[in-house]
Design goal:
The complex is a heterodimer of chains A (142) and B (146). Chain A has 142 residues and is mainly β. Chain A contains one helix and eight strands. Classes of the chains: A mainly beta (142), B alpha+beta (146). At the A-B interface, strand 5 and strand 8 of A face helix 3 of B.
Chain lengths: 142, 146
Amino acid sequence: MNQDLVLSEDLAEVMESAIATGLLSATVTIQEHNTTYTDAGQPNPDPANWTNVSGLVDIQAQAAPANPNLLVISDREQRSIGEIQSYNDLHVLLDTYYPTITTEMRAVVTYVSGASGLYDIQAVENDSQCQMTRLRCVLVTL
Amino acid sequence: MTTEAKIRALAQQDSGLLAFLNGTPFRWFDVQVPPRFLSDQLACVRIRRVSTSTMYVMTGLQPVTKPRFQVDSMHVNAETARALTDAVIAFFGTIDLVSNAQFDCPPTTPRQFPTYFSNRMMGLLPAPEPPVYVETIDVRLFALEA
């Protein structure tokens, strides 16, 4: 298929149109770990070891619940004998294509309400036309 | 007072454990850790009875039992979990649940501390970020329960 026709111009307008709707009302900052380890060999869990990735700060985004059960829009709870885990799954649509984001990074999602959360990036999904990036994120609390 | 309640009551007076677990509530939990503490990167202990040996003589069931507990020390930092385990081990070496000495008014020091450690191992709860390290010890002790 020859995509050098008018179609290529239309493709660039897709995300422009999405941004113009105002739906990308959240912001996302991508962070990476500085790969320091404790003396015993554990990745250092100190929050200070996560730093913002240059160029990936305060990205306009749309954060939506990713639960496959579309009737559930809140956290889901999973109980075991020893603990209760709460899962918050999100699909986060970013305002353009970001090829450098990896699943080793994490996302700080700030909603229009001002509330925010730290999410582990489980998957980085790019469209076939390199116009947009969507993150599959999860926040598990104990 | 059950054995589990006695252990927790004594744990709340132990300075080594208070250094890790002090707060509202004292973070020594029965079987299941309630939500939020570990995600807030606070150290927690959970204790679970895994077996109880009983003794019989001619007259019947004896009041002294030999329960075995699994005690998990939990934190997002593995070294902190290990240090907490050391404090738990030290604490169990100071209690005697066969006598009431430590629950008298005023409490006194018992003459013996019949606690035995049979295992120590490390585990992980991988789902949260950061993951939670869990160091487990098996403790067998004598208790007055019947």
